[in-house]
Amino acid sequence: MSNQNASENQKPAPPEQLDFIREIVQQDLASGKYKAPVTRFPPEPNGYLHIGHAKSICLNFGIARDFGGQCNLRMDDTNPAKEEVEYVDSITADVKWLIEGWADHCLGLKPVGKTPETRDVGGKRDFFLPAAGECKTPLEPFYASDYFDQIYEWAVELIKKGKAYVCDLSPEDTDAYRGSPDKPGKDSPFRNRSVEESLDLFTRMKNGEFPDGARTLKAKIDMASPNIWLRDPVLYRIRHTSHHHTGDKWCIYAMYDFAHCLSDYIEGITHSICTLEFEVHRPLYDWILENLDLPRPLPHQYEFAKLIPSHTIVSKRKLIQLVNENIVSGWDDPRMPTISGIRRRGVPAATVRRFAIGVGVTKFISLTDMAVFEHAIRDDLNKVALRRLAVLRPLKVVITNVPEGHVEELDAVNNPEDPCGGMRKVPFGRTLYIEQEDFMENPPPKYFRLRPGGEVRLKYAYIIKCDEVVKDSTGKIVELRCTADLGSKSGGPTSARKVKGTIHWVSAPHAIDAEVRLYDRLFTVPEPDSEGDFKANINPHSLEIITAKCEPSLKHANADTRYQFERLAYFTLDPDSEPGAPIFNRTVTLKDTWAKEAKKSQ
Ligand code: ATP
Ligand code: MG
């Protein structure tokens, strides 16, 4: 796919139209506040990345790319109960795939086993970004869990300052004391515990003396604050659980809100960009950093609206259900909105980026029609896909005026959109397959394909006329007997003769069988999440598996090549394929069949 990225790979021109976050970045550079932006993409490794994350990845890496900065890939791994190495690995692979050739020079990784020692705000990039080829050690993402020692020290500092305390309220009581948005909270009876006692208890929490849920460390802020996140939020909880990255070293774990801002600080993040639901957390983000008296400048948080695509779900909790309940074949099932599913479906990374960037960065929550994504896929694949002949539901055709055993090699265009795409040969003979739906015995008006007594052109070949319809004892059509106008192939004396329809075909004795997986949208309604139980909205026809008859060249189809089966859809080779036994996934149909459905139901 690399030649596709060529234009994108050139040094980016300064962005013309800036979204509101890029405007802020530009101002911060112009004022000299920072030399370069340092952003981060901070997934929690508790599931695979999805198309929504692609928006965040493109925004964070895009800013680094546009302004000569860096974007760290950081595992936000503070909740060991739900996190796994499998997710760390898939996230790393997906991010690399998505930004490769576009912003991979901005990817902040670190040598395996090291933690950042320096905090260089605004881009001394040596430590974070060892230049490719120069780095002797393998690289890995940043981990919030690498900062647990430092974060613990800062918790101790807050206690010493009287700004945090150990609380013995149960999780239920903690909730009850917090109140609700319209009702102020109540001070915990442990709020005024002495610094010494809190220090002692916090140390013992860390040493594993108490069971899960027995105590927490809380920030001492304001139980009457209109912002519920400032009502003495929990900073640490006890969890006797092994961690995928730190093993059994810890049995207390920092909450997201405490770990996140401090991880940003440690990495010298300049602009900490997240989705709108974190807007209400921002005062806490600032409170923590400010109350630790950290040397300035501090990172700042900015929020944008999520990407919410129609006809799918992007909640990890629900995606996990689809996987665990075997509703799909795995996280990378091509129907999943995950990056790995989208990749397996055959969508190029550049298309995902174009879509994720094209939806724009705003503060307004809105639903993005899946058709926009599908349109982008068609657009891009049209330019690069090799055209091939394949018949999904074969109907046998015998050309009675072509002798038995006759084989002719006809020229077929590889890609009419690509002047350098070249030609290939396709074999033609007496017995062919055409698509069942390209013949109708009693067609409606304006049916321009084959009918009894009617004519149609076979793509790259002859005009044929249907003379006879052969049926089995049940009345099913099993064969058509046709004659070809043998002067009508390209360059022939009757080649200019006009017939209304052109259909695709393959030579029966030469065709290879291939498994074809016809994927469709996983859900039938635009918002499966808000229209009852999301699983009740699953499209029962989201996958159909058939055996297709394909032109022989597809026997050695290539995983890096995209194909268009002419008149049908775009396809890609599935990794389940064996040498000589290809399996094809339908990436997207040539036409938007859903738009037609929607019109019908209006
Ligand atoms: P959860 O917190 O429920 O596990 P999440 O989707 O928020 O799910 P994270 O791993 O926290 O998962 O997400 C990593 C980053 O991606 C966050 O900065 C988050 O704001 C961003 N992100 C998540 N979903 C979307 C989305 N639909 N559109 C844009 N950005 C998103
Ligand atoms: Mg999240």
Structure description:
The strands form 8 sheets. The chain has a 7-stranded mixed beta sheet, with helices on one face. A 7-stranded mixed beta sheet has the order 24-21-22-23-17-20-25, with no helix packed on it. Helix content is 25%, strand content 22%. The longest helix has 16 residues, at 51-66. With 602 residues, it is α/β, with parallel strands linked by helices. 40% of the residues are buried. Strand 28 (563-565) and strand 29 form a beta hairpin. Mean pLDDT is 93; it is low at 1-7 and 124-133. Residues 42-44, 46, 52-53, 55-56, 274-275, 306-307, 314, 316 line the site of adenosine-5'-triphosphate (ATP).
Helix content: 10-25%
Unreliable residue runs: 1-7, 124-133
Shape: elongated
Total DSSP E strands: 30
Mean pLDDT: 93
Say what oligomer this is: single chain
Strand percentage lies at 15-25%
Main sheet: strands, sense, barrel: 7 strands, mixed
Present as ligands are: adenosine-5'-triphosphate, magnesium ion
Contiguous helical run count: 14
Structural class: alpha/beta
Largest beta sheet: strand ordering: 15-28-29-30-26-27-16
Element layout with pairings:
Elements: H1 6-9, H2 20-30, E1 38-41, H3 51-66, E2 70-75, H4 85-99, E3 107-108, E4 110-111, E5 139-140, E6 142-143, H5 148-160, E7 164-167, H6 171-178, H7 195-206, E8 216-219, E9 234-238, E10 252-254, H8 256-266, E11 271-275, H9 282-291, E12 300-304, E13 308-309, H10 316-324, H11 339-345, H12 349-358, E14 367-368, H13 370-384, E15 386-388, E16 390-391, E17 394-399, E18 408-413, E19 423-428, E20 431-435, E21 455-458, E22 463-471, E23 477-485, E24 502-503, E25 505-507, E26 512-519, E27 543-550, E28 563-565, E29 569-573, E30 583-589, H14 593-600
Parallel strand pairs: 1-2, 2-3, 2-6, 11-12, 13-14, 15-28, 17-23, 21-24, 26-30
Antiparallel strand pairs: 4-5, 7-8, 8-9, 9-10, 16-27, 17-20, 18-19, 20-25, 21-22, 22-23, 26-27, 28-29, 29-30
Helix pairs in contact: 3-12, 8-9, 12-13
The structure holds adenosine-5'-triphosphate (ATP) and magnesium ion (MG).
Adenosine-5'-triphosphate (ATP) is lined by residues 42-44, 46, 52-53, 55-56, 274-275, 306-307, 314, 316.
